[in-house]
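Write out structure tokens for histidine kinase.
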Amino acid sequence: MRKLSFKLGLLFFVFVLGVETVLFVALYVTLVHAKVDEEFEQLLARGNNHRAVLESHYDEVTLEHVVMMESEAETDVVITDEKGDILYFSDHILPFAKKIIPHADARHIPHSGMVVQNNWKNESYIATASPIRMDGKTKGYVYMFQRTASIQNMIAKLKHHFLVVGIVSVFLTILTMFFLSRVITIPLIRMKQATEKLSKGDFSVRLQVKGEDELAQLGKAIQTLATDLEYLKKERNEFLASISHELRTPLTYVKGYADVARRPNIAEEERAKYLSIIYEEAEHMQKLVKDLFELAKMDQHSFQIKKEPTSLCLFLKKIYEKMYPAFHTKNMSLVYRCEENVTVHIDQQRFEQVMMNLLDNALKYSRQGSTVSIDVKTEKKNVILIISDEGIGIPEKDLPHIFERFYRVDKSRSRTGGGTGLGLAIAKEIVEAHGGSIHAISEFGKGTSIIITLPRGE
């Protein structure tokens, strides 16, 4: 991750430095042009002011006064007649003026004046010219000169300022990029450490994730994965422990009673009794293995559901006819109410397995003389099946867990009192494979209702 941090920081730095360089160069060129143009404008404005004074008072005193004013300034002035002959001039400017004035095309100089020498980089002076017009005729010209050293000094200072600001900007950019790369990579480092723990089987990963950006979403996904894996590990351990317990007990019975039945001096009646117990335990193991096989197929997504349009009332009538004798034997009533015939898309064999399991549980945990009922209710898009009994009920603390594998409400009940602990888990998987849902409501000591919701068929 340090390499990633360095690469990200370097990438950001190069990109930002490139942007800053382009912006700084553009700003520098713009400022230089603006400052140089400002110097030209100020020089031309000064020449136009002198020209305006001379147009009002064109006499020797005024001419000398203009020259005297420029002798105390950083600029110089040259005044010529209409032919370009020099009349008045500031000190030291005459040699350069004689080079510029003959080459200036005075006929094309507008009354507002113009720049006649703008090469501030290579020449020692810049110059402007303003024509003096009186009574519609050109009386002469005012030439203004300014040393380019002042402009070059200004540009040098500007370069210095830009260089200092540039160095500070690069330094701040480096700090910012380092900070940003760390901000980005620190969560990635924590996620890498978390995934390394997950790969080693340590699922106790806790990532502190803030925000809603992509990194935060990745962190939440890893945290969810860790939580799910931790839950699956716990569930797997419990599952294996439950299987071990469920198989160990019947195997102990089988081995123990088989050893007794093998004794040569045992009575045939007693041997038959032990063999009967061995057979019952073998049946129990067979049912357990069958249920485990069903769950394994569901987990591997090889569990096939073949839906077909089914009349729900006719389907429930067949279930009723199959289960009625068992209820009658225990002196219990089984009723079903399905007034409105509706069609549902179900796998009849699989859904019969669900109904038989639920009714078998109701039969086991209800008192003699009580009633178990099957009710059908219809909604706009769903069909609701309610299997209700008047049995012992389920404690509130156990109710959320009854559809978990191997979960038993009565942990100490005898083996003859219940099945494998997988029936409701299988029923839940089958119902959800049909696109439905299943849940239970119960009041301890008064009874339980299992509610199945299925999509209504077209």
